[in-house]
Amino acid sequence: MPTFVYMTRCDGCGHCVDICPSDIMHIDKTYRRAYNIEPNMCWECYSCVKACPQNAIDCRGYADFAPMGHSVRTLREEEKGTISWKIKFRDGREKNFESPIRTTPWGSIKSAEDYAAPSQEAMKSQELAHEPNALNIDKLPALVPDQLKLGVV
Amino acid sequence: MGLFSKRKTVFVDADILVIGGGMAGCGATYESRYWGRDKKIVVVEKANIERSGAVAQGLYAINCYMGMQWDENQPEDHVRYARNDLMGLVREDLGYDIARHVDSTVHKFEEWGLPIMKDPETGRYLREGKWQIMIHGESYKPIVAEAARKAATEIYNRIMVTHLLMDKTKANRVAGAVGFNVRTGDFYVFRAKAVIVAAGGASHIFKPRAVGEGMGRTWYAPWSSASAYALPILVGAKMTQMENRIVLTRFKDGYGPVGAYFLHLKTYTENAYGNNYEPTWYENTKELVGDYIDRQPVPTCLRNHAFLEEVKAGRGPIRMVTKEAFQDPHKEQVGWENFLGMTIGQAVVWASQNIDPKEINPELTTSEPYVMGSHATCSGAWASGPEDYAPDEYQWGYNRMMTVEGLFGAGDTIGGTAHKFSSGSFTEGRIAAKAAVNYVNDLGNDQPQVRESEYENLKQVVFQPLETYDVGRNEIVAGTVSPSYLLPIHGLQRLEKIMDEYVGGISAHYTTNEPMLTRGLELLDMLKEDLAYLGAEDLHQLQRSWELQHRVLASECVTHHTMFRKETRWPGYYYRADHPKLDDTDWHCFTLSQYDRESGKWTMDTAPVYHIVD
């Protein structure tokens, strides 16, 4: 469903422009507010909907196969670590869902460079970062060269 | 060329340049920093890595996890599974390599904060199927992007990379890349010692089922514009299995995924009259592929084949029987959240058409074909294998290095490694990055140099569509029809029509033959010539122009490969009507292609398939 922007809610902040993976949310030069410049290249990924601080962006199902009168609204709350959904059917039925989105505080990932620097020996091994420990097994598995043979199996 | 003399050129130097900040690119960035503490690691992304790539929208499952810690699966098991699903042809050395590392990737994701569901009885990750674990993955990409941002020296969002640059001091060695900033219009020259291509596969090379407003609701993201292939192809990297396009059986119109429905919710398919149609087509399929139909699980393409035959026999629509499972409130919740977490559009379609799967069994359909390297298919670049066990024919340098020196790849870019999905793509990025750090360390003072004439020439080429439009626009009163230029959407629709009709798209029932492919190539040649007349009204349309260029080159490659393989290896993905059967005598091999950009000619070859035999 391509996105659209409500004139009275959008303040032109540009968060949607910044996030859209398809580069289709642009600022209208006359109204200084965002709009979808290319609805047929919209994946309905909701990245812009989730990013909008004003809840100004909504979706209307693709005209070529979605009858009107439905809505799928979302509220993504980073601090709370949840996303909530309200689905409204064309005939008025509703369904509500809520899911966790993250179990740790935003920004808390330990940087790759904050781990002890790897040794020269490790550099030449087949192990990747944090292995074998992060595999939760003793040793990185490997094939021996003659295990790979020509033929049809 | 007054228009271009004012255009700024920005130079960026990097030890390792990562092109594309999706799952594979983020994995490559993290690992580059871990092993290359003193390295300058630069990521360039055409969108914003916070929400870019195929996982932008989220995922509800991680489809590649061994569970070695609980002895659930071993890497060999995954190799056999992928081999079976792809009808015998995968790079088992590369697949094993991903499988042996992927668990450490997934454990890191959990540590970083990705909510992975647990089995309440065992405490293990909740299995959706043998290889899949279930996640609440709405923020999968933002979490992974956070790790990449902390690892990168610099990240350049909103820069579309158009071409790779080659070294002037040594033939067949990469030296960087060029592109343009979609916001400022500045030209970027990246000078790098090693380049990791982690760009996206190809949607929108075949005509999609929806061609109106809904054309963007493709199965694979519309921003997956084949840069994964076009960038390496243009500099002569060998490609493999490019004919191995994928067709997806999905919920109708929204292309909502069926994995959780089949595997976790235990829903099943039936024809319009309530019958299980798959046994009906057993003998027919056996006639085409022999005992591959008897293997378990039944290869994805062969299940598609039964679906297609049943629809052609007039017993559609095929439906997913959901009414039984959805009486269980937990399963109903999983069924809906599965879409909300990764294909919201399917929830919209159902809401709009009053489809509550508790009361109505929803329709399924088969998608148009896609070319990519990470799902149940394995198109991509021919890459060197792991040093510790890859056969000699698969090893000529560093792990995941293509046939161009210093040019590495991961994710959709690398061919032969089906079923890596999100976690495997990230893992392959890690593998490529460690190898790239070693490569850069080994270079010493022998560093690649870009050629000024090359990037200055490309600067002209890259921005040409803006000038073509400016000049041509003055010829006409208004509107989109010009005798002097084509808009990117015009070129895209012509490409999709050619591929659809001649190379095995939906309107041809996924069927083609040599005369059709020959005609398709003639039309593609003319399209390629016409790309010189692309007109771009603004920088956004300039991005669309270059996405189209990449798609056309990848499509040409797909067509040559499809012509070369004279068998029907994957019925249900595509059919060579002139060679309707699988042929293990002559075609149990990989197909290879190499493009010569001077002559525009393609050279085709084969490579042997090595199997784990035990």
Give the arrangement of secondary structure elements:
The complex is a heterodimer of chains A (153) and B (614).
Chain A: E1 3-5, H1 15-19, E2 25-27, E3 34-36, H2 47-51, E4 57-59, E5 71-77, E6 82-88, E7 94-100, H3 120-123, E8 148-150
Antiparallel strand pairs in A: 1-4, 2-3, 5-6, 6-7
Chain B: H1 2-5, E1 9-19, H2 23-35, E2 41-44, E3 59-62, H3 75-85, H4 92-112, E4 133-137, H5 140-151, E5 154-156, E6 159-166, E7 174-181, E8 187-197, H6 227-234, E9 239-240, E10 249-251, H7 259-263, E11 268-270, H8 282-289, H9 300-312, E12 319-321, H10 329-342, H11 344-352, E13 364-366, E14 380-381, E15 407-409, H12 421-443, H13 452-473, H14 488-502, E16 511-512, H15 514-530, H16 539-564, E17 575-576, H17 584-587, E18 589-596, E19 601-608, E20 610-612
Parallel strand pairs in B: 1-2, 1-8, 2-5, 8-15, 16-17
Antiparallel strand pairs in B: 3-4, 6-7, 7-8, 9-14, 9-18, 10-13, 11-12, 18-19
Helix pairs in contact in B: 2-5, 2-12, 3-4, 4-12, 6-16, 10-11, 13-16, 14-15, 14-16, 15-16
CATH-defined fold name of the largest domain in chain B: FAD/NAD(P)-binding domain
Q: How many strand elements of chain B?
A: 20
Q: What is the architecture of the largest domain in chain A at the second tier of CATH?
A: 2-Layer Sandwich
For the termini of chain A, the CA-CA separation is: 45 Å
Uncertain segments of chain B of ≥5 residues (pLDDT<50)? Answer: none
The N- to C-terminal Cα distance of chain B equals 65 Å
General description of the model:
Chain A is mainly beta and 153 residues long. Chain A has 2 domains: 3-100, Alpha-Beta Plaits; 112-145, no CATH class. In chain A, 9% of the residues lie in helices and 24% in strands. Chain A is built from 3 helices and 8 strands. A 3-stranded antiparallel β-sheet of chain A has the order 5-6-7. In chain A, strands 1-4 form a two-stranded antiparallel sheet. In chain A, a hairpin with a 5-residue loop joins strand 6 and strand 7. Chain A is elongated. The model of chain A has no long low-confidence stretch (mean pLDDT 97). Chain B is α/β, with parallel strands linked by helices. Chain B folds into 3 domains: 2-245 and 370-443, FAD/NAD(P)-binding domain (3-Layer(bba) Sandwich); 249-366, Flavocytochrome C3, Chain A, domain 1, CATH 3.90.700; 452-589, Methane Monooxygenase Hydroxylase, Chain G, domain 1, CATH 1.20.58.100. Helices cover 37% and strands 16% of the residues of chain B. Chain B contains 17 helices and 20 strands. Chain B has helices spanning 2-5, 23-35, 75-85, 92-112, 140-151, 227-234, 259-263, 282-289, 300-312, 329-342, 344-352, 421-443, 452-473, 488-502, 514-530, 539-564, 584-587; strands at 9-19, 41-44, 59-62, 133-137, 154-156, 159-166, 174-181, 187-197, 239-240, 249-251, 268-270, 319-321, 364-366, 380-381, 407-409, 511-512, 575-576, 589-596, 601-608, 610-612. In chain B, the strands form 6 sheets. In chain B, strands 1, 2, 5, 6, 7, 8 and 15 form a 7-stranded mixed β-sheet that branches. In chain B, strand 1 (9-19), helix 2 and strand 2 form a beta-alpha-beta unit. Chain B is globular, with a radius of gyration of 23 Å. In chain B, 62% of the residues are buried. The mean pLDDT of chain B is 97. At the A-B interface, strand 5, strand 6, strand 7 and strand 8 of A face helix 2, helix 3, helix 4, helix 5 and helix 10 of B.
